[in-house]
Amino acid sequence: MRVVYLDFNATCPIRPEVLEAMNEVWRKTGGNPASGHQLGRTARGFVEDARDAILVLVGAETSRTNRDRLIFTSGGTEANNLAILGIAEARTGGMPGESVVSSLEHPSVLRPAERLLDLGWRLHTVPASTDGLIQTDWLARHVFRRTALVSVMTVNHELGTIQPVEEIAQLCENSGVPLHTDAVQAAGKIPLRFRDWGVSAMSLAAHKVGGPVGIGALVLRDGTPIRPILFGGEQQGAMRPGTESPALAVGMWRAFELAFAELDETTRRLRDLRHYFEGRLKHTIPNIRIRGEAAPRVCQTVSVGIPGADNQVLFTGLDLAGIACSIGSACASGSPEPSPTLLAIGASREEVRGSLRFSLGPTTTREDIDYTVEVLRRLTEGLRR
Fold this sequence. Notes:
The structure is a single chain. With 385 residues, the chain is an alpha/beta fold. The chain has 2 domains: 4-12 and 263-384, Aspartate Aminotransferase, domain 1 (Alpha-Beta Complex), CATH 3.90.1150; 16-261, Type I PLP-dependent aspartate aminotransferase-like (Major domain) (Aspartate Aminotransferase, domain 2). Helix content is 42%, strand content 13%. It has helices at 16-28, 38-57, 76-92, 107-118, 136-142, 165-174, 194-197, 246-261, 263-284, 311-320, 340-344, 349-353, 366-384, and strands spanning 4-5, 69-73, 98-102, 122-126, 147-151, 179-182, 201-205, 216-220, 289-290, 301-305, 323-324, 355-359. The strands form 3 sheets. It has a 7-stranded mixed sheet, sandwiched between helices. Strands 9-10-12 form a 3-stranded antiparallel sheet. The two termini are 27 Å apart.
């Protein structure tokens, strides 16, 4: 059976060059990076080299005087939790305060924000337009010096829309409020400019760009207050206890290095494929809707709405035909609730029920797209009949 993978926003399969780099680390060291002996120092060297290199790649400050920090985590979810809970508590001394998040955030931002709500915090949610962009004028009216933290993602995981992070960072800076941005879906699709954007914290994950699953990072601007959310060790300045993996750290470094070096070519090729895909969908399936079409978007995310369809049936039919796509965020897979992202941009529950997300990647071809459109056409016609 033909296999077509169109779920790169969930995970981009690990690249051979990354595996080779990780294998080299495993061959050269078996020591614990926290150990003081020679093998431990070798392992520590791999971790610190990766840390420094990733900071440079994402546009962070690496000078000795005002050096930014990079805390390795188990992935984007942990990085987001550390940012939301750790910065918020550090800003208020552990007392209840006030935070702001956008309505388009990934569950790994929304859930810790709701946890703060359970602890007595006030939570404001920034509304979004039907195009999938947050309303910055609303944000400007609701951010004050008493606000402990604002969190707005760089690129939406379902729509691919690019939020005006620099503008939002300026609003926050004017009020002296730290801005965290979840850039997990932005890496490898747009340039990352941590310092230039003016954000205080940025979350990353390796497996979205062909790196290994199980490692991510939180980048922190120099001077940003934060408290740990895990305890039991002194690793990474006690901000994220637990033994670091040299191989995973190097794998993340190598994946980011490759993705950023190929960014221009990747963007051009995938944007052309996305235009082709969306054109074929519109021509083939009556009344189909491309969400976020009028907004700035990354090159490879296609969110479609098909009136009169059931996305569970479509998803299963596509899967049986060897086509992998998504109904929404992979982290929310299995949830009976409709996509909060689509509800936030004004879609009705009926419209959400007919929605699918396709995300293109390095192996996607026009033949894959033609096959997908034909299978989707047959399934849609069957449902509509």
